[in-house]
Amino acid sequence: MRGVPYRNDQRAGGFTLLEIIIVLAILAVVLGFSVGWVVNRQGQEVEAAYSDVDATLRHARGGTMEAHGPWVITFSATSIQAVPAKPVGGDQRFQARAVSWDDGTLLEVFDDQMGEFRVPEDPIQLVVTHRAFLPAMQLRVRNEGRWVSGVIDPVSGALTTTGADN
Question: What would the 3-class secondary structure string for 31-98 be?
Answer without folding.
Answer: HHHHHHHHHHHHHHHHHHHHHHHHHHHHHHHHHHHHHCCCEEEEEECCEEEEEECCCCCCCHHHCCEE
